[in-house]
Amino acid sequence: MITKFSTFLDNFLTKFSIVIFSKEDFAITLAQLILAIITLTVSLFVIHFISKKILHWKYLIDLDEQHQSIPIVKLIRSILYIICLFIFLTILGFPAAYINFVWRFPIFSIKDSHINLGNLLIGIIFFIFAFRIYRVFKPKTEQYIDKSLKLDHSSQRTILTIIEYLIVFVIFLFSLSIIGIPLTAFTFIGGTLAIGVGFGSQNLINNFISGFVLMGERTTKIGDIIEVGTNTGVVEKIGFRSTVIKTFNNLRLIIPNSTLLENNVINWSLTDKILRRKITVGIAYGADAIKVHDLLLQCAKAREDINHTPEPFVVFNDFGDNALLFDIYIFIDMSNKRNTLKIESDLRTDIYQTLILEGISIPFPQRDVHFYQDKPFDVRLQKD
Fold first, then answer.
1. Tens of pLDDT along 301-336?
2. Which domains are seen in the chain, by residue range?
3. Do 347 and 300 form a contact (C-beta atoms < 8 A)?
4. pTM (predicted TM-score)
């Protein structure tokens, strides 16, 4: 079988040995062109088949929900396309010296190291491919840390962020080694960066270091409820440069890391997730204060979304201009993911309904005017 195919190939090359392109020591025959086209077509079909098989790999199917499998397949497909191009040029008889010249074409030099086009392409491809591979297995890493270390969500995110920094740094070093850039070159670059930090990149480096301080000090963690200035929300991410906060209006607030260190920050959940809230109720004068106290306390204790440890309590706060002022203090567990505004609204509704059933009125702002009749009023009518 092999002998027959070899004979057929020799006859084919002899029959279609018509030169269609010639230049010095390089010539392309019709047979080479036909074989190259056939090989290229088969290679593209094989690449398409491999891409489909990769997409049907069980682990990548699970990643489709996170849209991470498609970039991996595109990267593998691009590498295979480059390999096909070299095979195509080889079949055409393209001189190896030309390919070698292009591959070793000098780009730039650092000290005694010369960076060529081929190594630069391989280094870039390696960096992208290695980083994509890390992103693919990142969910598995999160699951492993969750099962083995049994840490809270904030600690997990801190560890994963540090691991990501280290992996990116190691991949970067390997890429530099492949390209041929020596680490000693960074002695000069480091001096240049030091000057740059003093001028333009001071804030960037400041925010970068502040991010590590926040993750190490842990006074502000992922999942904490913090108040910065007039903005309040939940910390979603502590990144290289900034921290992302999700406000209670479902907006994303991006704050530089240094701002959280240099300004006053109120952390509502630094030690625990228990938050105390106050609701003020005005009761009409003449009502039984003790009965009102008991009814308000009963309404607060009846709700399941309000903590009973510590227990809510009621304070007769003041004699207001138009009402007796009572303050209800309640404690809410923020870890139950319920909106505090909704809990307070439901409690106000219960209080209002209970007071109506008990015949206790909530007065509106009003002012009594008294006329003294010890002397007559001076009434005048004026015509315009």
1. 998 888 888 899 999 999 988 889 999 999 988 765
2. 12-180 (no CATH), 201-267 (2.30.30.60), 274-357 (3.30.70.100)
3. yes
4. 0.53
